[in-house]
Specification:
single chain, alpha/beta, TIM Barrel, Lyase, Ornithine Decarboxylase, Chain A, domain 1, 2 domains, eight-stranded mixed β-sheet, seven-stranded parallel β-sheet, disordered C terminus, binds pyridoxal-5'-phosphate
């Protein structure tokens, strides 16, 4: 594997390649899953945390060109950055309305996801001050107990619809606790709480399903799907074949290769010791780039058809790998290794690090040279093992 010829990539220690076409194809696949039952279900995109590490201001316009019309972020500043590249589309801020930020929302045309009556009152007061209706999203807590209107606040809203006067209720949402576990009874409990609430608040569009929630079936689809992870290739069906296209490749450069005798240690603390004469290559990434320290002795990288173990402690900027069994020509200084890609996905690396792929992706380092490609024309699921039709899990 070699680096792209791009001049700015020439100096890079590692290159993260993001396939925008694959993200777009994943979005189309999820949108079509929502439409499969014949209802006009729309599909948004969750772009928080810099689009799960892939670059929100690049991914957002690409998805808008694909037909995506609504976007979610977590922070106001994420919304402001996205607004610069998406002047027209609704952008919803999930973390809600921080006291005093009403002018920021209005100035940048952002829509707060209101999480309790206090935020609703503040946003309504803003609508009065600005003498115009303002869009609002209401988030109902159906069991996550994290953000959203609790049962008491929700009942007040049902009883006193006038509290929404001056606002346009753009959407009612809730968020699933365990959508990746189809058999978990909490899914059905949340569904029924959400249904009861939206029946009592007719007229506004509704949204419940995140990525895995989409695969719980049409009952969970309502008017708007809200995927994040699956857009970026994370498996929405843990333990089953991944129906999404892979989006990322991370290649790191070998800086130096050395021979060491048997019984020599490598790296800080002498935490790994060679059992035989070995060749050790040092590659240009480390924990400062989101390559977790706990990956030591638990994962590998890929070189020229070989899975090569990571040995010795992960340093801030460096990782050492045991290339003893790899032909020398493939691991000279300057050659590259695959850290993430077809041979080791973010889901695989997450398994090795005892975390999830969301953390792997959102930790992806800022020092990587980023290259965007847009070559994917195929539909997701084309080359996967036994893809599950969306909705089959319900
Ligand atoms: C409220 C809300 N909706 C949707 C999503 C997207 O979820 P996922 O990435 O699992 O698709 C998230 C992500 O955490 C979220 O917090």
């Amino acid at each position: 594997m070699s680096f792209p010829a791009d001049e700015s990539a020439r100096r890079a220690g590692a290159i993260l390649t993001i396939d925008l076409g694959a993200i777009a194809a994943n979005w189309r696949g999820l949108r079509d899953a929502g439409r499969a039952a014949g209802r006009p279900v729309d599909c948004a995109a969750v772009l928080k945390a810099d689009a799960y590490g892939t670059g929100a201001t690049v991914v957002g316009p690409r998805l808008a060109a694909e037909g995506c019309r609504q976007f979610f972020v977590a922070h106001i500043d994420e919304g402001i950055a996205l607004r610069r590249v998406l002047p027209e589309h609704p952008i919803y801020v999930l973390n809600g309305l921080l006291a005093g930020t009403e002018p920021d929302f209005v100035q940048h045309g952002l829509t707060p996801v209101l999480n309790h009556l206090g935020q609703l009152n503040a946003w309504r007061a803003a609508a009065q001050r600005y003498e115009r209706p303002l869009d609002a999203v209401v988030h109902l807590d159906t069991g996550m107990h994290r953000l959203g209107f609790g049962a008491e606040d929700a009942q007040v809203l049902i009883n006193e619809r006038g509290r929404l006067r001056g606002l346009r209720l753009a959407l009612i949402i809730s968020h699933l606790v365990a959508s990746e576990e189809p058999a978990n009874p909490v899914n059905g409990e949340q569904l029924s709480r959400f249904r009861n609430f939206v029946r009592a608040m007719p007229g506004a569009p509704t949204s419940l399903a995140n990525s895995s929630g989409i695969f719980l079936g049409p009952d969970y689809h309502f008017d708007l799907l809200r995927p994040g992870a699956a857009l970026y290739g994370i498996n929405p069906l843990p333990g089953r074949g991944n129906p999404m296209l892979s989006v990322l490749t991370l290649q790191a450069r070998i800086l130096q290769t050395r021979r060491i005798d048997a019984f020599q240690t490598v790296g800080y603390g002498g935490a790994w010791r060679s059992a035989r004469q070995s060749r050790i290559a040092t590659i240009a990434l480390g924990y400062a780039d989101g390559y977790f320290r706990n990956l030591v002795n638990r994962t590998h990288v890929h070189i020229a058809g070989y899975n090569v173990p990571v040995v010795g402690r992960i340093s801030m900027d460096l990782v050492t790998i045991d290339v003893t069994d790899v032909p020398e020509a493939a691991c000279q200084a300057g050659a590259t290794v695959e850290v993430l890609g077809p041979h080791l996905t973010p889901d695989d690396l997450a398994d090795h690090a005892r975390t999830n792929a969301y953390e792997v992706m959102t930790a992806l380092g800022r020092r990587y040279h980023r290259a965007y490609v847009d070559g994917y024309a195929d539909e997701p699921g084309d080359e996967q093992d036994e893809p599950d039709p969306p909705g089959a899990a319900a």
